[in-house]
Amino acid sequence: MIRIVTAGRLHQLEQDAEQARSGAREVQAQADAALGRHVRELQAAADRAERADAATSEVSAILSRALEELSAAQQELLLKDIKIRRLRAELEGESMEGRTLTVLLHYGEPHTVYASREDAYADTATHGADPDGWVPSGERPASAAMWRCEAFIYNAASNGFRRAHMPAPKPVGEVA
């Protein structure tokens, strides 16, 4: 069968083909634009993933250091707890009767309590005080000396400590 195509029909087919090519170009342009958006979104997602990975690594390192410091602090606390328990056991096992404590006074105000005068001298020497510079305070009031050590003895009757060396009482005045 032979088909005869007229010029009008041929012209119509060419227009349809041109419209199809034009539609194809538009669809291709839309596809290219969509591909470009998707590529940019993919690059942005990859960048965010890289930043998240870097932040995760940094946080992991910080957390690791924090855990190391926590472990060291826990070890230190455990050792201090053991030492405190040992000291408590020693104190509970010994009678306090006759025991002395030394109180370091700063211008008459209590500063630090020590188990012995030697401990007080040794500790104050680590802070710059002359270990051989201690002299008896005599009858001067405690507030007159910058640093002064006073010994206190446990008194079982009062369940407390009293001064080892009581100053001589001074008369208040002449009372009739």
Polypeptide structure, described:
A hairpin with a 4-residue loop joins strand 3 (about 145-155) and strand 4. By secondary structure, the protein is of the alpha+beta class. It is about 55% helix and about 15% strand. The mean pLDDT is about 80. The chain has a 4-stranded antiparallel beta sheet with strand order 2-1-3-4. It starts with 6 loop residues before the first helix and ends in a 13-residue tail after the last strand. The chain contains 2 helices and 4 strands. It has helices at about 5-95, 115-125, and strands at about 100-105, 110-115, 145-155, 160-165.
What is the arithmetic mean of pLDDT? Answer: 82
Helix/strand structural class = alpha+beta
How would you sum up the global shape? rod-shaped
Please indicate the percent range of residues in DSSP E strands (runs of 2 or more). Answer: 5-15%
Rounded to an integer in angstroms, the radius of gyration calculated over CA atoms is 46 Å
N-to-C CA distance: 159 Å
Q: Report the helical percentage.
A: 55-70%
The SSE string, one letter per element, is HEEHEE
Strands, count: 4
Strands in their spatial order, largest beta sheet: 2-1-3-4
